[in-house]
Amino acid sequence: MADAEKGIIALKKLDISREDDYDILLKKVEPLYIEKTVTEELKSRIGLKCKIILIEFPYRDKDFSSTYSGYHTKKHKSITKECYRLHFFSDKNVSKDSYKGFLVLRPSYVSRHRGRACISPELLTDSRTYCMLAEYPVHIFGEEYVARSYPWMSQETDIAVCAHVAVWSISRYLSEKFHFYREYTMYDITEMVPISLRRKVPSEGLYIHQIAETILNIGAHPFLLQKKADQSKFIGNVFSYVESGIPIIGAMTRKEHAVAIIGHGEINYALLNNLKGDYIYSYELIDSLVVCDDNHLPYTEIKKTANNGYTFDDLDYAIVPLYEKMFLDAEIVRGRAENMLKSKVIDLPAPLVLRVYMTSSKSLKEKVRNDRSMESNLTKRILCTPMPKFVWCVDISTKNDFMLSKMSGKIIIDITAGTYELNPWILYHDLSKVVYYNTATDRFMKETLPIKPYNIYKNNLREV
C-alpha cells in the first residue's frame, strides 16, 4: 500500500456482495500475509453475513509483537513486525451496531497468517449455540467499537502450538471478564511453560502436566478431569463447568490436539418425549460442545456422535481453570443433588431435568432481584442469605417446566465446602418449602412457602 510506505495508517474498504469478493483480499493484502486458504475459509464460514471489510495497515498487534521480540528477532532471516487487521461489518453502513469484530493477518513464511481474532459468533455459526463471550474494545481512527466474542488465533508452529493457543485464549478471556486475572501475550504464555525433557522454543507440543502448570502460572487453579470407564460422567462434569461460564482445555491424546471448550450447542427438547427414569441432566439433551480450535476460525463443534470432525469420544482430559476458593467439584455436587431427590428431601414430580453450574453470588442475587417471575418471599430469602463469592447451583425442573424455560426447585451449595461435608447446602427449595442455612445459629431453618415455577437462570453463557 502506497500510504503505508509513507508511514501512514491506511483504511481500505472492501464491499462483499458475493462470496468471490473475498478473493479481492489476495490483491489488497501482500502475499506475506495471506494465501487462498484464508479467503476460502472466510467464504465458507462467514460468506454473505459480512457486507463490508475495512482493511487496516499497518497495525501493531501486541501478541505478534511479543513473539516478534522474543523469537523472530533471534532468527537469521528477518521478518516485518507490521500486521494487517480486517474489520467485519454486517451491513452496508460502517457503524458500531454493525461491527462484528476483527482478524489480524500476521506475516509468516510458513502460511500461519491468521493471528489474533475477536469475531462475533453471529458471523461464524449457522445453528443456535450458547457461548462464553466478552467485550473487547477496538479503536479505528480514534473511534471505539466493541467486539463481542471469544478470543482466538491460529498457532505459529515453532513458537506456539495448539495447547499454547488454548491457554492463551483462556487467559485473555478471563482477564477481560474478571479483574483479578491479568492479561498475558502469546509469548508470555510460551515462557510460562515449565521445562520438561524438551526445550520451550521451538515447541513440539505440551504434556498434560505442562498445560496444568501453565494454567497455574496465569493465576488460575487447574482441576483435571480424566475420562475413565464411564464416559457419560466425564462429559457431564465437562458440561457442568461449561454451564458455569468457565472455559476448559479439552485434550485429545490420540489426536495429539488440544482445544478450548467455550460453550455448547442447541438443546433438543424433543428428547424429553422419551424420558425414562426419575431424572436426567440437561446436557443429555445436547449433542455438541462449542470449541475454539486453532486449526479453524472459532466456534466449531465437537459432536456427540461421529461426523467429519471430532467427537466426545476423542476427549480424554479436561483441564478446568478454577478460582482459588472453588473447592467442591462437579461430580460431588451431582451426587449430593441426586441423593436429595432420592430421599425426597426435595419432593417434585418425576421425571425431572437437572442443570448443574457455578455462578457468582453477586450475579445470582442480581438476577433474582430482577426476576419478576419469582415469588417475592423466595426472592427475599435468597437475597438475605449469606453466600461465598461463588456458589454451585442445581436448577430442577419438571419436564413441562423445562420446556418453558422454568424451574420448579433449586439447590444452592457452598462451593468452599470440604469434599466430605455432609451438608454443604446454603439454600434449597421445592414447590412447598424453602430451607436455608442460618450462619448465626449454625442451623438449617425451614419455611413453608408456596412457590410457583420461575425463570431458569441465564447468565454464564450467551445465546447466539
Summarize the structure in words:
The structure is a single chain. This protein is an alpha+beta fold and 464 residues long. Helices cover 25% and strands 29% of the residues. The strands form 5 sheets. Strands 6, 9, 10, 11, 13, 14, 15 and 24 form an 8-stranded antiparallel sheet that branches. Strands 12-16-17-19-20-21-22 form a 7-stranded mixed sheet, sandwiched between helices. The radius of gyration is 24 Å and the shape is elongated. The chain starts with a helix and ends with a strand. The model has no long low-confidence stretch (mean pLDDT 92).
Write a concise keyword list for the protein shown above.
464 residues, 7-stranded mixed β-sheet, 13 helices, 24 strands
Kindly state the percentage of residues in helix: 10-25%
Percent of residues in β-strands: 25-35%
Query: Largest sheet, if any?
Result: 8 strands, antiparallel
Head-to-tail CA distance between termini: 37 Å
**What is the number of helical segments per DSSP (H or I, 4+ residues)?**
13
Mean pLDDT: 92
* Class by alpha and beta content: alpha+beta
Whole-number radius of gyration?
Answer: 24 Å
Unreliable residue stretches:
none
Shape: elongated
The total count of strands amounts to 24
